[in-house]
Amino acid sequence: MTSPRIAIAGAGLGGLTCARVLQLHGFENVTVFERESSPDARQQGGIIDLHAGSGQEAIRAAGLFDEWRALARFEGQEQRKVDPATAELIEHEPPEGDFRPEIDRGQLRKLLLDSLAPGTVRWGLGVGAARPGEVTFLDGSTATFDLVIGADGAWSRVRGAVSPATPQYTGVMFVETRHDDEQLLGLTGQGTMVADDDGLMLWAQRNSGNHLRAYACMRADEDWRPSNAELLELYADWHPSLRAFLTGELIHRPLYALPVPHTWEHTPGVTLLGDAAHLMPPLGVGANLAMEDAADLALAIAEHGIREGVRAYESVMLPRAIDAQERTNAGLLDMVPERPIRV
């Protein structure tokens, strides 16, 4: 019997996890289509804390649990909260247990990529649109499949096959900076440091190799692109050691989310996972949920076949996603209350 042809749009963590679990269960005709030209075409973002019960179970289903543990930084579970005016430590959660150890996104992605059969990922061939069982690529060519899986993120090109929904701006802006400064590393600790005051937030995260990524967070116009001076002016009352995180190159990241609830009628031949299905504020849930989706979908297909497997997956995934969207939306509102936009 010929193995069904399965197309996965997007070589992110969700798409790669799905491909890996499918291949472990004997599905040989799985292809991941990725518009980027190579695995190293761009940096892969900061750290990810894989949660017990979701992300960790997905990496276990992928047969890569021991390899992941060897790379994970359990000390990265440390949480520090400091006073914005004095930079003094006011709350501290030491790195205990193994509920959510950290790993660099790039390391986790490479682990998944290296586990796939050679040629699984088609680099430089992105999906431009999809219909049930059919993909139109960005170069204009088309191909048919038994199943098309949209794992292509926030601005998914596959989503339109099942839903007209599009991401909406949340009103919240992240401004990212990167550092290697010893003093800032000391203030951050081994994991994550947070400070907040009057609708402004700052947090910093230690990545592998003692690199730091910091994020200023505030309500702002969607197209606001502050200079260093403007950003520092917003944080003028904060301690100089915290304001030092706001120097250097600024990377502006307006936050988007899909409407809640985001559901669709089951459509044979196509489905979604991860941000394509349930884009939500980045509060530590998204990557875990994408990998959980991916493993659940692959396992359901392995058990029930494509048609009934996708239906079974969606019956579990959609309610779970709605709950996560509601919780992260509430969390973002708690972090950055609705007040007049600052800029």
From TrEMBL:
Pfam families: FAD_binding_3 (PF01494), NAD_binding_8 (PF13450)
Domain FAD-binding, chain residue ranges per copy: 144-304
InterPro entries the UniProt entry points to: FAD-bd (IPR002938), FAD/NAD-bd_sf (IPR036188)
GO molecular function: monooxygenase activity
Gene3D superfamilies: FAD/NAD(P)-binding domain (3.50.50.60)
Record key words, sorted: FAD, Flavoprotein, Monooxygenase, Oxidoreductase
SUPFAM superfamilies: FAD/NAD(P)-binding domain (SSF51905)
Name recorded for this polypeptide: Monooxygenase
Species per Swiss-Prot/TrEMBL record: Lentzea flava
